[in-house]
Amino acid sequence: MSIAILQISALIKVSLLELYRRKDLIVVLILGAILLLPIAFVTPFGISGSGTYFNEIALIMVWIFSIFIALGVSSRIFPNEFEKRTIYPLLAKPAGRGVILTGRYLGALTAAISALCIFYAAYILLCGIKQGVWFSEVLLQAFILHAGLIAVMVAIGMTGSLLMTPSANITLSLLVAFGMLFFGNRLPELAQGQGAIAKIALYSANALAPHIEFFDMRQRLVHDWPAVSWLVCVVVMLYAAVYSWVCLLIADLLLRRKRF
Amino acid sequence: MTVIRLENVTKTFGAVRAVEKLSFEVKKGEITGFLGANGAGKTTTIKMLLGFIRPDAGKVLINGKDPVLPLTRKSIGFMPEMAYYYPYLKVYELLDLYGGLCGMTKKTIGARAKMLVAKVGLSGTENRQLKTFSKGMLQRIGIAQAFLHDPDVYILDEPFTGLDPLARIQFRDLLQEEKRSGKTILFSSHELSEAELICDNVIILKEGKVAWRGTTAQVAGDGSQNLERVFLNIIGNDSWEGVAI
């Protein structure tokens, strides 16, 4: 096994151990149950079909919390390492800063995806109980694309953590994420009616900001619409991989220039 | 054979000149004490020796290679001044992490870790998370992680801080044992008596420059001197200007 793989797997293992020991997953489990229980047990006012709205609300909550967890985990790793000085023994070992960054990124990603798995497991369980549907192609696609989004958010959070404080980083990243989720696909349309500077700003945002809406399968899940082509999923996952890679490249440059 | 070499190294932080044209060498199998008052430039020098920061001018070499390169650091065992480690990990999990970063196999880590945990007096604490450890116990973990990959060079930043008398004796013995097996040791310290006991050479820094260097035999002189007197004479002398020896 190559040394880099040994080094990266050692860092991932530590992230998982910390996640388990800090009992973060239990909190996620409770959160998942609270968010998703209404789907299974509530039919408001006895109106048939109103479950769809609960389903939609529960899914948006899953989205919000999964993004929040991804950013919360990733944006604190390096600031904590710097503040608690645990970075020094790490840097003194024969591991490059790129390896440390990759290990820390994959550790945070594994932790955030573990939380996502819990949310989806609870969602599948409750949908199964209520509707008798335990598996669908759309659900699988929704999970895979959601995991791709988490990969992007963790990369953004980690890069931002090398530039600003965790609270500023989380706030800014959440603004970008939810701004793009709700308005991302309207940016070119919005840009057309604007002046030159606003047009440049909106087109730049369209080109540079992560297109969260690409990963969004909520409507298909809620309304039982058919699955998208798997080719589309592959392209979106490639977009996630490239976007994350570019973010990590920037983070690597920042970490190399960091003064300790 | 020279293991650690600094040639005219200068490092500034803004308007502050932390280290200025610093040059010294440490030869294989020597224990060198790196002393100086607070802010003398010891930690900055150690950070350059580990490749954490680059000098503005001059050369820093470990075994003839640049410590910024990860492979060079394979031969370095470093113990940081403040022993902060991941609080949710247990002793062997922490050593697993550092061993993994050194590219050691699980089997090798296991064997070395077991031996070192016993040597630093932490047997019986294996099932406790580090958050329950005292400062002295964390310092012992720091020693174990620095020695884990059996490096050729040890760079230790204030290693005696927080250690109780028994642990100091054990650590001193450990350093002497490593010296006998040909390892090179450079440690910074404010503990002058410890430095006098175990060092072959002493370097005293003042305002980023070498103010005094020599062997511990030179420190003793005709028998009326000790390191404390030499240190106070150099550090307390405001009229000092430049390298004394």
Helix and strand topology:
The complex is a heterodimer of chains A (260) and B (245).
Chain A: H1 3-21, H2 24-41, H3 51-83, H4 87-92, H5 97-131, H6 137-161, H7 166-183, H8 187-192, H9 196-208, H10 218-222, H11 230-257
Helix pairs in contact in A: 1-5, 2-3, 2-5, 3-5, 3-6, 3-7, 5-6, 5-11, 6-7, 6-11
Chain B: E1 2-13, E2 16-27, E3 31-36, H1 42-49, E4 57-62, H2 70-73, E5 76-79, H3 91-101, H4 106-119, H5 135-147, E6 153-157, H6 165-180, E7 184-188, H7 192-198, E8 201-206, E9 209-215, H8 216-220, H9 227-235
Parallel strand pairs in B: 3-7, 3-8, 5-6, 6-7
Antiparallel strand pairs in B: 1-2, 1-4, 8-9
Helix pairs in contact in B: 3-4, 4-5
Entry keywords:
heterodimer, A: 260 residues, mainly alpha, 11 helices, globular, B: 245 residues, alpha/beta, disordered C terminus
Quick description:
With 260 residues, chain A is mainly α. In chain A, 79% of the residues lie in helices and 0% in strands.
Strand proportion of chain B, as a percent range, falls in: 25-35%
Average pLDDT number of chain B: 88
So how many helices of chain B?
9
Helical percentage of chain A: over 70%
CA-atom Rg of chain A in angstroms: 20 Å
Please indicate the percent range of residues of chain A in DSSP E strands (runs of 2 or more): under 5%
What does this structure look like?
The complex is a heterodimer of chains A (260) and B (245). Chain A has helices at 3-21, 24-41, 51-83, 87-92, 97-131, 137-161, 166-183, 187-192, 196-208, 218-222, 230-257. Chain A has 260 residues and is mainly α. Chain A has one domain. The two termini of chain A are 31 Å apart. Chain B contains nine helices and nine strands. In chain B, the strands form two sheets. In chain B, strands 5-6-7-3-8-9 form a six-stranded mixed β-sheet, sandwiched between helices. The chains are: A mainly alpha (260), B alpha/beta (245). The A-B interface holds A 3, 6-7, 9-11, 13-14, 17-18, 21-22, 84-86, 88-96, 99, 259-260 and B 47, 50-53, 70-74, 76, 78, 80, 82, 84-86, 88-89, 93, 96-105, 129, 142, 145.
